[in-house]
Amino acid sequence: MKIDFHNILQKCTVEASAPCRVDMGGTLDIGTFYLPLQRHDPLTFNIALDLRTRVRLFSHRKGYVRISSVGVGESEFRMDEAPYTHPLGLMFAVAAYFGAGGVSVDIVSASPPRSALGGSSVAAVALIGAFSRAAEVCGRPPMSKEIIVRVAHAIESAVAQVPCGLQDQLAAAFGGIHAWRWLGEAEGPGFEGNALFPEKQCTAFSDNLLVAYCGVTHESKDINSTWVRQFLSGETRSLWIDIAENTRAFVGALGDGDMDRAVAFLNRETDIRRQMTPQVLDDMGRQLVSAAADAGCGAKFAGAGGGGCIWALGESSNIRRLEKTWVQILSERPDARILDVGVDSKGLLCKVTEQ
Questions:
Q1: Cα–chain-centroid distance for residue 7?
Q2: Phi and psi at residue 305, in whole multiples of 5°?
Q3: pLDDT tens, residue by residue, 313-348
Q4: Domain 5-25+46-196+347-354 class in CATH
Q5: pTM of the full predicted structure?
């Protein structure tokens, strides 16, 4: 059934929002890694943050798609002529997937642009959720969160032309604090989620968390490409096995309430990745990670590093002490700052407002 989004959006406004994330064990959510490592039970861990990306859909002139994203810019193209190499190319590709000509898209993110918190994947999940909700107005069945995740991942992988993982989309859709196990099955979902804490505990967990933006943007492709190349060549295979086993041990420690062990495993992962790619941390990043260790906390760069955010985990008293040190370190660079974050338990949210 072809959907006339232009007509639907003349009668209503559709909104959707989804949270970004910090992570551990990332890259293991890419088939290049988790398929050969099946016997090591690969999983990733992520915490959804209440820094939401919000998307709104409006009616626009027929045949055209306009997309505006704060921090990125605004562009308009005929639906079938939009370049997917554009900075907003992923969003235009999502619009094309739905055949959404005659639509204007406004995107506002509470996280800094290119901060390694999964922003582009989050925006894709929110936009797909918005289009799905708009299609429901004229009778199309709703898309499940799992299907939204799969569509977002498939489009992003096609546009990026590099291996992409699924954990960013999963955190955006489901929220909360999860361990995601990568099953590598030909039939079935291929992954399994384990929510580590109920909603009340997720809220309390915010006291154990600290996130800093380092004031410089990141570019994940170069570091991810290095990791993929190293892994395929066999050069770092044993280190990725260590990461898989270390992440599983971290999740176990966190589930047992053993923060000291969880902190040690988090720092272990950061050490392993720095061994493979020293450029994941710049001088400020190294200072932040070192200060976290001195305060009895664990710290890791978000995503593939190389700029963006650093996050820390620890007992609440240690986190409060670390925050004071991090504020001093971050003051050395314009735009660097502590982000006001908590754990988001809701995941993807969508609504329709009649005009």
A1: 32
A2: 70, -155
A3: 999 999 999 999 999 999 999 999 999 999 999 999
A4: alpha beta
A5: 0.95
